[in-house]
Design goal:
Blueprint (H helix, E strand, L loop, with lengths): L3 H6 L20 H13 L5 E5 L6 H14 L4 E5 L8 H5 L7 E5 L8 H17 L2 E6 L11 H7 L3 E4 L5 H14 L6 H10 L4 H18 L5 H8 L2
Parallel strand pairs: 1-4, 1-5, 2-3, 3-4
């Protein structure tokens, strides 16, 4: 169920962005991230969480999964992909968000260094704190390295828990690809999964996009996922 704010901003969430299909192998540290996100929504964790990590580690997936989790608990939540909103006046976009239970800001780096956005975000932080609301933020760098010019905003970004989302190694990426394939009802064996991981960009977003293409192609042609079929379909 979407909030009125989500509808007015034209922001939608991916249905398949869930905690359950985020691959977090034992020992990676990402289990701690998932646990902290769940506890935040459940009211048992920190009110402010800051996630950071390299491109393709799944920051957007995790933020949207948190939104789905919040909505399932009947919380009013707003997801804002800031990369898509740099041309808009921040005051209009952020006005009234402190009335919601939770706000998720994705791609903070895209507005870092913009004095108008920084001041508006600083005011939002204060409003959310005063109202006792939840805030989840994501960016590629930790807040100390982010290009934030407003000192007060920089300090606010470090109020809560700061968690790094760890990248997967090639073996884990292969396992993640096979797991996502099973969820889609596809048969993807280790040999074919390894072939894909070794020959395409290893960003997980890209890997799942390739899997989506293979799913459609295999259904259309009624073909199994073999290395010759993958090579032909993806042009490898």
């Amino acid at each position: 169920m979407s909030t009125p704010q989500q509808l007015s901003l034209g922001v939608s969430l991916k249905d398949d962005a869930t905690f359950d299909n985020f691959y977090a192998p034992a020992g990676s540290g990402n289990e701690q991230v998932i646990r902290a996100l769940r506890e935040q929504v459940e009211g048992q964790g920190e009110h402010f969480l800051y996630l950071w990590g390299a491109s393709g580690v799944g920051l957007t997936h995790l933020l949207q999964a948190s939104c789905h989790n919040a909505e399932s608990r009947r919380l009013a939540v707003q997801y804002l992909p800031l990369r898509e909103m740099t041309g808009f006046a921040p005051e209009a976009l952020l006005e009234g968000l402190e009335e919601l239970d939770m706000v998720c800001l994705d791609g903070l780096e895209s507005v870092a260094g913009d004095p108008t956005w920084e001041r508006a975000l600083f005011n939002l932080y204060n409003a959310l704190r005063d109202a006792g609301r939840l805030l989840l933020v994501a960016a590629p760098q930790n807040p100390r390295e982010l290009n934030i010019q407003l000192p007060d905003l920089r300090s606010r970004l470090q109020w809560g828990v700061i968690l790094k989302v760890q990248p997967l190694d090639d073996t884990d990426k292969q396992q993640a690809l096979m797991r996502r394939a099973r969820e889609r009802g596809m048969e993807l064996n280790e040999e074919v999964a390894s072939y894909i991981v070794q020959r395409v960009p290893r960003d997980m977003n890209q890997l799942f996009c390739y899997l989506h293409r293979l799913d459609h192609a295999s259904l259309a042609e009624q073909r199994k996922l073999t290395i010759p079929f993958v090579k032909k379909t993806l042009g490898l």
